[in-house]
Amino acid sequence: MKTMKQIQLTDVRKFEVQEVPIPEPGPNEVLIKVEAVGICGSDMHSYTGHHPFVHPPIVLGHEYSGIVEAVGENVHRFQKGQRVTSEIAVTCGQCYNCKRGRYQLCERGKYLGNVGIDGAMAEFLVIDAERVHAVPDNMTPEQVSMVEPLAVAFHAVRLSNFKVGDTAMVIGAGVIGNLTAQVLKMAGVRTLVVTDVVDARLELIKKQGADVVLNPIKTDPAEWVRENMGPEKMDLIFDCVGNEATLDQAINTARKGTEIILVGVPPVRVPVNMAFVQDRELIVVGSLQYVAEDYVRAIHAISHGRVDVDSLITDVFSINDYEQAYAAALDKDRMTRGGMKVLMEY
User: Is residue 297 part of a domain?
Assistant: First the structure.
């Protein structure tokens, strides 16, 4: 019996290297040899015990690149040696949302590296072939690992009521916020305002095309918008952080009738001024993951150089140095120096 190594989160802030059998792909599954895996904000929440839905034991990791090792008997779209990545949802196909194409909201869904399925902090993983996407050879393993977060950004913008020529604010210039801002710019936003408390992140997104960057510690975004945007203020606000301060900023900045898209995962229950939501008839929409269309767009955007993901990959570790990688991802000093995505390579 062939075995592989996996790194399982066994408790809060505790990983364990385990030797386990290499999984066999089922009739409709693909066995993938992992090349690289990113550390997502939700992975960090899971590691520190703050994720509302992810609990150990679980093998984390869902932003990854890989190579097909084997396929099930019913799988004909992929062959050994092909470079791939995948969506994370494995769904029932029968519930209300699955039947309407919103399968990421499946009532009985399992999610790679999150709930019910071990993820990419392992030498191999198995996933339903329906969720696997081939990637062009011109994409590096590091770039392929960024498809998943870019798909999150595409989904958030597509889910919104964004129209070409709208104004938009993105709260948070971390990886997801940066990518959401880049997608908005590519989609034809008229004025793009990005806020973050880390100046280095603002400097990067400014270089990538943001029209205005604001640090809320130094400048009140709501006041700036009132003084500079006129009565129309912002058409859309994307909160890519999801904490009390950023939701307050979104609600206080919004004009009456503005749409607020919540992209960031709140680590805990967050108090919200519902009186403003009601009185201003604000539209608050949650954005979860993505569907296949978002993956296709993300792969195309990266492979054709339409979105800059390379600048976001600031730290790359060997998978054997997983403890140092997670320490780096959680290092606030590194963040203030401009640290963004942490990847681990095999």
Answer: no
If asked whether residues 240 and 162 sit together in one domain, one would say yes
300 found inside a domain = no
Mean pLDDT of the chain: 96
How many domains does the chain divide into? Answer: 2
DSSP E strands in 162-268: the ranges are 167-171, 191-195, 212-214, 236-239, 259-262
Residue 304 neighbours by CB under 8 Å, 6+ apart? none
Q: Which of 240, 255, 286 is the last residue before a domain boundary?
A: 286
Q: What is the predicted pLDDT for the residue at 331?
A: 96
Query: Count of CB atoms within 10 A of residue 274's CB?
Result: 11
Instruction: Write the pLDDT tens digit of every residue in 100-155.
Output: 999 999 999 999 999 999 999 999 999 999 999 999 999 999 999 999 999 999 99
Structure tokens at 146: 């960024």
pTM of the model: 0.96
Determine how many CB atoms are found less than 10 A away from the CB of residue 168. 26
Helices marked H in 198-330 — which ranges?
199-207, 221-228, 244-253, 274-279, 292-303, 322-329
- Scanning the structure block, which residue is given the tokens 């590096």? 140
Q: Between the CA of residue 21 and those of 66, 124, 157, what are the distances in Å?
A: 18, 10, 41
Q: Which of these, 181, 158, 142, 94, lies nearest to 291 by C-alpha position?
A: 158
Tokens 């890989």: give the residue.
66
pLDDT higher than threshold 90 for residue 269:
no
Tokens 């095309």 locate to: 209
Q: What is the CATH number of the domain that holds 340?
A: 3.90.180.10
Choose the final residue of a domain: 254, 286, 318. Answer: 286
The residue type of 333 is D
Where in the sequence is the domain holding 217, given as residue range(s)?
151-286
**Residue 50 predicted with pLDDT over 90:** no
Residues 135 and 18 occupy one common structural domain: yes
Angle made by CA atoms 63, 59, 47, in degrees to the nearest 5: 85
DSSP code for 33: E
**In terms of domains, do 98 and 62 share one?**
yes
Q: How far apart are CA 204 and CA 308, in angstroms?
A: 11
Instruction: Classify residue 298: in a domain, yes or no.
Output: no
User: By C-alpha distance, which of 295, 36, 43 is closest to 142?
Assistant: 36
CB 122 within 8 A of CB 15: no
